Amino acid sequence: MVQRLEIFLFSLTLIPLGYSLFKSAANGESAAVSGGKGVIVLSLTWIFFWGVYGAVAGINPYSYLLKVLDLGFQQSLEFYASKEADLSQETVYALQQVTNGMRKTIPNLLPGLLASAVVITVWINMVFSNTLMARFHNGVFPWGKYLTWKLPEHLVWVPIAAITIILIGQGYLQYVCGWMLLLSGLLYFFQGLAVCITLLERWNVPVFIRVVLYSFLIIQSYGVIILTFLGIGDVWFNFRQKTEEQ
User: Alpha-carbon distance 169 to 231, whole Å?
Assistant: First the structure.
């Protein structure tokens, strides 16, 4: 019962986001501006929620999350080494190395991963609300069709600067740039997905093949990287405008 109440209360944190997106759409703001405001609103809402939750429960939610993740990694290591796993020693050693590497890396990247969760949540709400509103307003999309969504051009320097500093920097600065790279890469993945949708529509690719391609590109790690670079390349080569001119 308590767990259900916690889930219900956490779901209420989406209300400020919904209001922010509604106001942005009513004011005719672009998808990028609306999404940026939504990210700020949802971030502050979640920080407030988990701050209150931590004070009531008497725990530090962030530290607790780190402990849970580390416990999960420990249990994975124990399972790999157990007889139930039925794995060769070479396989067990390789899995242990990977898991130990993740135990060291994930805590350093966790702020970026949590921020990415905020961005993904805002993006999902924008996509669904944009489609839903179009159905009730005779096909008029509040932020235009998704395939027209575009990030500010100057934002492209964020991943470039992050990669540069990661390569030449040291210590905590590398982790901060890692967070920036995660966030900017995620944003350009969304833009690359819009470019991909545009190209497939202009080339009249059958729906079934589109679904297969989308599934492959999103599920496969290489596909995610391809879409991310496609989104970055759109800044300079403007694939969508070239397609419209043909």
Answer: 26
What is the full per-residue pLDDT of the chain (246 aa) written as tens digits? Answer: 667 888 899 999 999 999 999 999 999 999 999 999 999 999 999 999 999 999 999 999 999 999 999 999 999 888 887 866 677 888 888 888 989 899 989 999 999 999 999 999 999 999 999 999 998 888 889 999 999 999 999 999 999 999 999 999 888 899 999 999 999 999 999 999 999 999 998 888 998 999 889 888 878 888 999 999 999 999 999 888 754 444
pTM: 0.92
Three-state SS sequence of the chain: CHHHHHHHHHHCCHHHHHHHHHHHHHCCCCHHHHHHHHHHHHHHHHHHHHHHHHHHHCCCHHHHHHHHHHHHHHHHHHHHHCHHHCCCHHHHHHHHHHHHHHHHHHHHHHHHHHHHHHHHHHHHHHHHHHHHHHHHCCCCCCCCCHHHCCCCHHHHHHHHHHHHHHHHCCCHHHHHHHHHHHHHHHHHHHHHHHHHHHHHHHCCCCHHHHHHHHHHHHHCHHHHHHHHHHHHHHHHHCHHHHHHHC
Burial label for 174, CB within 10 Å (0-12, 13-18, 19+), is middle
